[in-house]
């Protein structure tokens, strides 16, 4: 579904990614793990169109998307849940979710309203807590509720591939488990998931496959089970 080949990207003269290659299979739960500053966020931003790579290829569903505008990438079925949630604090939960469906409305006009309504029902069934908070300002939600809202907003665009950048950041262990349980459930219903996480233990516990990125380069790639048993991964990321 997603094929990244020999990708270089960075910020100005500072190159962060150095010839990165990554393949995410359709229907998989793929974990991208690495320390802070390893290049996880940069890679997700490049895939989502928020950062133009200086070299390399990104193919999504067989079509090149490197350098394509983010809105067009979302319209093709790829959505990013950014690090730090980035919800619109002054807006209500409902308004945040409606913004997630903007590309669908823009492409299909008023005829899409029924589909958007059905999608909203799906998101609220996935996150019942949000249904209780629809009229509440997003900035007054707890950290866990804001993460649910950020994921729900991305799901409103009906993606086939969902990228998540550090979804466990700042959350209590119980909430982290709830969030990853939801992601596993979404995967079982056909959604492909790529999650970038410093919390390697959680990410690899839920993932089918994993990739380790270090200093902007891919260090290891394999099944999650293999990575959990790798001595270097266990020492560097799992604390055992």
Output the number of helix runs: 11
Oligomeric assembly: single chain
- Classify the beta-strand content into a percent band: 25-35%
Order of helices and strands: EEEHEEHEHHHHHEHEHEEHH
What's the overall geometry? globular
Residue-averaged pLDDT, rounded? 93
Largest sheet: 6 strands, mixed
- First-residue to last-residue Cα separation: 33 Å
Given helix and strand content, the structural type is: alpha/beta
Helix coverage percent: 40-55%
Major β-sheet strand ordering: 6-7-8-3-9-10
Which parts are unreliable, with pLDDT below 50 for 5 consecutive residues or more? none
| DSSP summary, beta strand count | 10
Query: Radius of gyration, rounded?
Result: 17 Å
Description:
By secondary structure, this protein is of the alpha/beta class. Helices cover 42% and strands 26% of the residues. The protein has 11 helices and 10 strands. The chain has helices at residues 40-48, 70-76, 93-100, 102-108, 113-126, 128-132, 143-155, 173-188, 200-206, 224-229, 231-238; strands spanning 2-11, 14-24, 29-33, 55-60, 63-64, 78-81, 161-165, 192-197, 209-214, 217-223. The strands form 2 sheets. Strands 6-7-8-3-9-10 form a 6-stranded mixed β-sheet, sandwiched between helices. A 4-stranded antiparallel β-sheet has the order 2-1-4-5, with helices on one face. A hairpin with a 2-residue loop joins strand 1 and strand 2.
């Amino acid at each position: 579904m997603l094929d990244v080949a020999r990708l270089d990207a960075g910020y100005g003269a500072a190159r962060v990614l150095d010839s990165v290659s990554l393949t995410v299979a359709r229907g998989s739960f793929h974990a991208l793990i690495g320390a802070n500053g390893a290049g996880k966020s940069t890679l997700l931003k490049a895939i989502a169109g928020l950062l133009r790579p200086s070299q390399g290829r990104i193919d999504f569903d067989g079509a090149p998307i490197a350098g394509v505008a983010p809105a067009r990438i979302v319209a093709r079925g790829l959505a990013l849940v950014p690090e730090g949630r980035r919800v619109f604090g002054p807006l209500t939960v409902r308004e945040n979710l409606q913004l997630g469906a903007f590309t669908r409305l823009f492409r299909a006009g008023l005829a899409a309203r029924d589909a958007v309504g059905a999608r909203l029902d799906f998101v609220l069934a996935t996150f019942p807590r949000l249904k209780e908070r629809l009229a509440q300002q997003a900035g007054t939600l707890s950290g866990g509720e804001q993460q649910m809202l950020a994921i729900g907003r991305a799901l409103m665009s009906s993606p086939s591939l969902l990228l998540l950048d550090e979804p466990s950041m700042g959350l209590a262990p119980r909430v982290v488990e709830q969030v990853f349980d939801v992601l596993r459930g979404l995967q079982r219903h056909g959604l492909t998931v790529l999650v970038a996480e410093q919390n390697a233990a959680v990410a690899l516990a839920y993932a089918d496959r994993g990739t380790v990125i270090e200093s902007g380069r891919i260090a290891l790639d394999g099944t999650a089970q293999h990575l959990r048993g790798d001595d270097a991964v266990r020492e560097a990321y799992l604390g055992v």
